[in-house]
Amino acid sequence: xxxxxxxxxxxxxxxxxxxxxxxxxxxxxxxxxxxxxxxxxxxxxxxxxxxxxxxxxxxxxxxxxxxxxxxxxxxxxxxxxxxxxxxxxxxxxxxxxxxxxxxxxxxxxxxxxxxxxxxxxxxxxxxxxxxxxxxxxxxxxxxxxxxxxxxxxxxxxxxxxxxxxxxxxxxxxxxxxxxxxxxxxxxxxxxxxxxxxxxxxxxxxxxxxxxxxxxxxxxxxxxxxxxxxxxxxxxxxxxxxxxxxxxxxxxxxxxxxxxxxxxxxxxxxxxxxxxxxxxxxxxxxxxxxxxxxxxxxxxxxxxxxxxxxxxxxxxxxxxxxxxxxxxxxxxxxxxxxxxxxxxxxxxxxxxxxxxxxxxxxxxxxxxxxxxxxxxxxxxxxxxxxxxxxxx
Length: 391
Hints:
By secondary structure, the chain is α/β, with parallel strands linked by helices.
């Protein structure tokens, strides 16, 4: 392993070990599972790039890399196969104009008054037929479903897609807090209150982000596209942009159960409702989003797909590109070794930090909510930071 300069990693180490909750800019717009720490991403960007450099995140998830690249004045391309991830990432990095925000503030009064639980008008029957209402039909939940349906009917009347997506994200955030992972769901009155408070909070976040972006940074809106990480080298958006200075990402974790595409209502009752709210289509089952079945022997499919992804990352990278990952393992005693072997096979060689006994940075994840059976498998709550360059 070749070494990185100590000056380049000291801030990264401090940020990786930081245990503060996610905050700042638009990061609280949606709680995407297994999301990056903004402080960590910002430290990595500042350590390994200069203003105007290109940052690539091939597993963009909740858009943390895109937001921090925008704030730091770097160009950014983020890709994902999850339509929900792309929706959230785009909303987080879309700065509304003063006119748009003024209109929304005026419009919201009427919108808030319309948030009533009435009989479903059936306008979203196609979504029901496709299964997006699953586990939203019970005696305790149907009012929430009707509230969502009524809210979406009002949102659909907005003349601007940018504004409509912003309010959809407000609704998405509020309903996730109200339903996801809660054995006792919030009351409809509490949900209405959350929608109001989140709307005004998110408007203030957009205003703060607008104020933060000065000069050329305003022209560096991240490019967020749907692309399988194994197909990066075939994407004109990515090839034409040239080799990134930095790849910073957090791919799906081997053997660790994280639901990127579902909410869990009243225990483990999975619903695809977030896609309905975002007006996006759900792609497939869990293994589609996690590179493979976590129960498969030796995780063969996972590691095959991982190799495909990082082989493509290596192809679009240059000799000066640094690849920084944060990853966790269900069984690190063998999975980390296998993971590093796959990186080598993909054309990437590990770079040493020389800061710990095994030359790697490990962190315990604070406040991490796994949709998993973690009572006896706590390894998945520890992450390691890996540094690679093109071999």
